[in-house]
Design brief:
Helix 1 crosses helix 4, helix 2 runs antiparallel to helix 4 and helix 13 packs across helix 15. It contains 15 helices and 18 strands. The protein is α+β, with helices and mostly antiparallel strands and about 450 residues long. The two termini are about 30 Å apart. The chain folds into two domains: about 280 residues, Zn peptidases (Aminopeptidase, 3-Layer(aba) Sandwich); about 120 residues, Alpha-Beta Plaits.
Length: about 450
């Protein structure tokens, strides 16, 4: 057993207690009444990083929620510089009545920590901090230059972080980035994410008469905004699930045979998937499997639609307006702003007569990412996970979007590798969120090996 392994083992109880203390801070970024708690979590991190030997630790203003930065840069120019990323904000806890314990009184049961933020992301992001501590305290030095960046607004889509990254390029400059936000496929099966979808969010508002009108007096003579909106939305996708907005697929990189083979290597149980969702069957773009669609094909989804009278009984009105909320998940080479232009043209071309339609861009926007197979940090992580788990990791494409990773690539020119240990059955964003202690311990060994492997590399 090495000195740092012994340190981790001997301090296991201390690290567990510290994690519980960290998780107990209700750092909910979405709720203004918890703004002080987000800063409290930032201060807790600042104190912890400083205590373990990280230098230049500061709470930084992003224009939104705070970020915490620190570094240790004494390994010399012949060693790489690595940025570790994570987030310390958490989701709201509603519905509170479905929790089995107070979400901010962490409870250990069946070797699992039950609390909000235990899995997403405080448990995983704490791991690289304590592994740095173990290596630094037991050896008196560290094998490479390291920077830490932890944000406090990931759960509200990191609205200020892209600008923050662009304003701090010199401070964040590095050779490799590892994200401690993410997860593994299962307790015994590792994975590495090599693709992330981009996102574009917008509303469509359709306006008809100045106010709601009597449907008998006006319904046969002027356009109904709800009918016009539903006709417009129906024109955006055909019965084969293909998006019919002109030019929508122009820049999409087709899935190669190798891509499809790698996607097919990841286990997918249709019955279990349907059981998980409660849906009665699969649906989507024809010609692709469900996993191919989830990870490798763009989407256009109506997230909400409203208009007219929605109260009890009947109110015979012709509504003044109707609205829909839409998001597009984009794949490699698609640009959100270009897709928005195509959507706006489609609305102008297909909106029925007699109404006015407006596309209103939302804050949700992020570029898609596709990480090259031979990307250096991914190769190092792949080798480490193979040693720790005893099997080759699945290389997966994620259907979700992580705007900060796009910002890292855009401004720092570095793809981030997700190296985290949550599992997707741990009730992220839901009541009774939990984090397995076994994942906490396995993650420590994985990061320990990762850090030593990086120490053998040149910049």
């Amino acid at each position: 057993m090495t000195n740092d392994q012994e340190y981790l083992l001997n301090n296991r109880d201390k690290f567990n207690e510290e994690l519980l203390e960290f998780i107990a801070i209700p750092s909910i970024a979405a709720l203004p009444e918890h703004a002080k708690d987000v800063y409290k979590a930032a201060n807790w991190l600042k104190s912890k990083l400083s205590a373990v030997g990280v230098e230049n630790v500061e709470i930084m203003d992003t224009g939104g929620q705070p970020a915490v930065y620190g570094d240790w840069l004494h390994a010399g120019i012949e060693k790489p510089t690595v940025l570790i990323y994570g987030h310390f904000d958490v989701q709201p806890v509603d519905p509170l009545e479905l929790w089995d314990n107070d979400p901010f009184e962490p409870t250990i049961k069946d070797d699992k920590i039950f609390a909000r933020g235990a899995s997403d992301d405080k448990g995983s992001m704490f791991i690289p901090i304590i592994v740095f501590e173990a290596i630094y305290k037991s050896n008196g030095s560290f094998p490479f230059n390291i920077k830490f960046l932890f944000e406090g607004e990931e759960e509200i889509a990191s609205p200020k972080m892209p600008e923050f990254v662009s304003n701090n390029v010199e401070k964040l400059k590095c050779d490799m980035i590892f994200s401690a936000d993410g997860g593994q496929f299962s307790e015994n099966e590792p994975n590495l994410a090599v693709g992330f979808k981009g996102i574009l969010g917008f509303d469509i508002e359709v306006i008809g008469p100045e106010t709601d009108k009597h449907s008998g007096l006006f319904g046969a003579a002027i356009a109904n905004p709800i009918m016009a909106l539903t006709q417009l939305l129906s024109s955006m996708k055909n019965l084969d699930g293909e998006i019919t907005v002109d030019g929508f697929y122009d820049d999409v990189v087709p899935l190669s045979d190798n891509d499809k083979a790698e996607i097919a290597r990841v286990p997918f149980d249709e019955k279990e998937y349907l059981k998980l969702t409660g849906a009665v069957g699969l649906d989507g773009e024809a010609g692709y499997t469900a996993p191919e669609r989830i990870g490798g094909r763009p989407t256009l989804d109506i997230n909400g639609i409203w208009g007219g009278y929605q109260g009890v009984g009947t109110k015979t009105v012709l509504p003044a307006k109707a609205n829909a909320k839409i998001t597009c998940r984009l794949v490699a080479n698609q640009k959100p702003k270009e897709i928005l232009k195509k959507i706006e043209k489609h609305v102008n071309d297909f909106l029925p007569n007699g109404v006015i339609g407006t596309v209103i861009p939302l804050q949700d926007e992020g570029d898609p990412l596709l990480i090259p197979e031979n990307h250096r940090s991914t190769e190092v992580a792949r080798d480490v996970l193979k040693k720790v788990y005893g099997k080759e990791p699945y290389m997966i494409r994620v259907g979700g979007s992580i705007p900060i990773l796009s910002a890292f690539y855009k401004y720092l020119g570095i793809h981030a590798t997700m190296f985290a240990f949550q599992l997707d059955d741990e009730n992220w964003h839901a009541p009774n969120e939990f984090f397995r202690l076994s994942s906490f311990y396995k993650g420590q060994e994985a990061y320990r090996q990762l850090f030593h492997e990086i120490g053998n590399l040149s910049p």
